C-alpha cells in the first residue's frame, strides 16, 4: 500500500520542481527582454 503512494508523491514533487524551474526561466527571459529594450 505504501509503495504506490510513495511513487505518486515523488511524481508530484518532480512536477512541482519542473513547474518552478519553468516559471523562473520565464521570469529571467522576461527581465532580460526588459533590459535589452
In terms of topology, how is this protein built?
Layout: H1 2-36
- Terminal Cα separation, in Å? 55 Å
Alpha plus pi helix count? 1
Supply the helix-strand structural class.
mainly alpha
Rg, rounded, reads: 16 Å
- Compressed to H and E, one letter per element, the order equals H
Which ranges are low-confidence, i.e. pLDDT below 50, for 5 or more consecutive residues?
A: none
- Return the domain count: 1
User: Quick one: how many beta strands?
Assistant: 0
Shape: rod-shaped
Proportion of helical residues: over 70%
> What's the rounded overall pLDDT mean?
88
- Biggest β-sheet strands, sense, barrel: none
Strand content: under 5%
Tell me what the structure shows:
The chain is mainly alpha-helical and 37 residues long. It has one domain (1-36). The protein contains one helix and no strands. The chain has one helix at residues 2-36. The protein is rod-shaped. 0% of the residues are buried.
